[in-house]
Amino acid sequence: MAKKINIGSLIASKTKETFSNNQLINSESVKNNIQIIEELRVLIPPLGVDEFSQLESNIIKNGCRDALTVWETTAGVIDANSENPSAPRYILVDGHNRYEICQKNGISFSVQLMSFGSLQHVKEYMIDLQLGRRNLTPEQVSYFRGLRFLNEKMK
Questions:
Q1: Where are the domains of the chain?
Q2: What dotted CATH number matches 21-118?
Q3: Which of 9, 29, 61, 97 is 20 to 30 A distant from 86 in Cα terms?
């Protein structure tokens, strides 16, 4: 006999888990020090002109409703030759288009800080996140599945 699942309880526990593991913040010091790593940015399929325009219009009209995902790490993890390896670094993981729009238009946004063990873990997260999005073409889905396969193969 199948066990019944209490959906409300499951959602509550997942929400609690998410907010206890990830920190949603509005700190200006973090927001002013967000860095973009090109190696991560290119993992995000670019929006078409119309898609970007629609997103920009929505954000201007309604504000940036979704928090940007930022990897909280240190300079030494990003660059082994860093002069100050323990200096904090805030790397943009998800929300590159929203970030660009907010910066261009002076629109406030929230940040969700996440921890990852390495740049490779960030890439894996980003690939899985992109595969869960509905706006990917079949070619993009195939590309991300290939990236995930290559990452798993390298382990």
A1: 21-118
A2: 3.90.1530.10
A3: 97
